[in-house]
Every structure is written in C-alpha cells, then in structure tokens.
Amino acid sequence: MYIYIHIPFCSHICSYCDFPKLLYDKKYINSYLECLKQEIKKRYKEEQVASIYIGGGTPTSLDRNELKHLLDITTIFHKKKKIEFTIESNVESLTKEKIQLLHTYGVNRVSLGVQSFHENTLKELNRHHTKEEVFQVIKNLKQTGISNISIDYIYGVHPNLKEVKEDLETYLQLEIPHISCYSLIIEEGTIFGIKKRKYIDEAIDDKMYHTIEKILKKNHYIHYEISNYAKEGYQSIHNINYWKNGEYYGFGLGTVSFINNTRITNTKSLTKYLENQYHLTKEYENRNIQISNTFMLGLRLVKGINIIEFKKRYQQDIKEITPVKELLKQKKLVLKNNQLFIPSKYLYLSNEIIIKFI
Ligand code: SF4
C-alpha cells in the first residue's frame, strides 16, 4: 500500500502557489497532528506499506518536537523492508538537527522545493533560500546518509533560455538522482495571478522543455514522466503508483484516497478536520471512469501503459478503447514491446492527446 500524509503548514506563501496550505501557526500544529493520528488509526487497515510520502505545505516548517510528533505517528504503519519514505521540504527549514531526526525515523528520500538557482527569480517566486544554502543542505543530507534527493525546478519564469541552461549546470553539480521540472503555471488567486503576470511565449517554453530534456538525458537521467527525470533506480515509487492509477491512502487536510475504486476526498476546512470530520466526498468510480483515469495518468509516463496489465485489469484489449486506434493511425500513440505510449515528439503537447480520454 501507498501512504500520502498532508502537512498543510508553510512559513510563507510562494507567488505561484495554489495548493491547499495554511501559514504556520503553532497553536494548530499539535491538535492537527493528533487528529491526523486519529484519522490514520480509524482508516488504516494494517496493510504492508511500500511508500510513505509526507507532502505539503512544508512539513519541515514544523519545529523539531512537532516533527518528532509527526514521525512518531508514522510508526503506526507496517513498513516493507525496502520502503521509500519521502518528505517534502524547503531549503531554509531543513536544519542539521531535523535531518538527523528524519534519518533516525527511516526517512530515506527528500524532495526539496528549490525552483531556481537565480537570486532574482527566487525573489520573484518568493522563495527564501540562496544557491549556496541549497548546496549546504544537500551536503548535510548526504553526510547524514540521505542521498536519494530530488529537487523541484520551475522554468518559464523569464523568457531566458540561458537562465535555464545555467540552472541545469548548477543542478548537475549537486550530483543528486532526481529532478522534477515544471513550466510556470499562473493560477487565479495566486500572487502571480492577482498581479496578472503574463506567460512567456509558448515557443520559448517549448524550447526550454526540449533543452532540459536534452541536457538531462545527455547526463544519463532517464526521462520517465512528462516532468520527471531520474538516474537508474531512483524513479519515485510513490508517484509511479499514482500514474499507474494504483490504490493509496491520503491522510490529512484536503487529501484524496483511492481504495476499492472509490475516490475519497477529505475536507479542506481546518475547523472541520479538527472536529474529526475528515471526509468531504466519497465517489465510486465505475469501469469507464477507471479506464479513463488509467489513460489520463498512465500516458504521463514516458513508457506509457502496459497493455498486458491493462487487459488483466479490465479484461479488454486496449486497442478497443476509443480513440486508441485513431491515435495509433495518426502516430500520436505508439504500441511497442507491450507498451502503449505517446512518442517523445508529442510529449510536450501530451495534454492535447490525454484530454481525448477524459
Ligand atoms: S509552493 Fe509549497 S512552500 Fe510554497 S506556499 Fe505552496 S505549499 Fe507552501
């Protein structure tokens, strides 16, 4: 089984962020964690756990004692020997002391919200770290024994390809096995949205995507999902389960769980959550929705969907699903080695293909 835990608290609000989050406020932390513990005790059915992913918000914005409280809660889970145990973090809150604590509780993967190595861009994104601090934190992680490290990177903040190339050069110096690269999205209600920030030209964004792909592949990173690159053996086990439309628990504010073909969404109201009223909606997904989600998620993977697994799961040949045959004819889908996937020349435009399966 796969476990996602949401810690919605952040020390500050980033300019582009539309995730469910709350500004860190000490008075709520321990009661939130106690409710989280109750929710887990109530819903978790003692399955063997292949991955735990603590996301946010910024889980490491918790102080040392609060973080220990959270990590104590994760001891409820029956962890498989080779578990992937990830925590998301920003750079400035990840102290040596917290790194040691994470390591003690078996956290073996850290996803850092770096986003850029350029000072001006970091300011515009309202991120509070420097390039030097990124290098120091990664050194501290490696010295403590956590080397499975990923960073998040945002491109397209400025129409400047040179900036992207410099950022990748800096990233390669870190010698870490994973990176997630996202094109800037400007959502309503975010600081950028309110300021009516404009997107860069699509052609430049396209060029940036392909430059990133070329440089990372040249440095032996596998492009395994539209936005994700990893060294061999470091692909995110947790996220691959999502992209394979697999089952998982989501615990905490605003999380989603997918169990027995039922998608359960938790409340986004902190008040309700602190009253142990966790669930907002519970929706059983019929076969058509399951198949649609399998395509929508599975085609994000560069390898695509395994047609034997598909047949086993749905007792149907994948080519019979509309519009697979049409897209194969248009060469926008390829069937090779039992995998149905979007060829690399169309990956940048994959949304236009994936939307046909919704
Ligand atoms: S991007 Fe992350 S750290 Fe920034 S406000 Fe959003 S959830 Fe918090």
Characterize the structure shown.
The chain has a nine-stranded mixed sheet, with helices on both faces. Strands 12-13-14 form a three-stranded antiparallel sheet, with no helix packed on it. Strands 15-17-16 form a three-stranded antiparallel sheet. The longest helix has 18 residues, at 26-43. The relative contact order is 0.11. The two termini are 26 Å apart. It is built from 15 helices and 17 strands. The model has no long low-confidence stretch (mean pLDDT 96). The chain has helices at residues 26-43, 64-73, 96-104, 119-125, 131-144, 161-174, 191-194, 202-218, 237-243, 270-274, 287-298, 307-314, 324-329, 344-347, 350-354, and strands spanning 2-7, 9-10, 22-23, 48-56, 78-89, 109-115, 148-155, 178-183, 222-225, 228-230, 249-251, 256-259, 262-266, 279-284, 305-306, 334-336, 339-341. The protein is globular, with a radius of gyration of 21 Å. The chain is of the alpha/beta class. Bound molecules: iron/sulfur cluster (SF4). Iron/sulfur cluster binds next to loops.
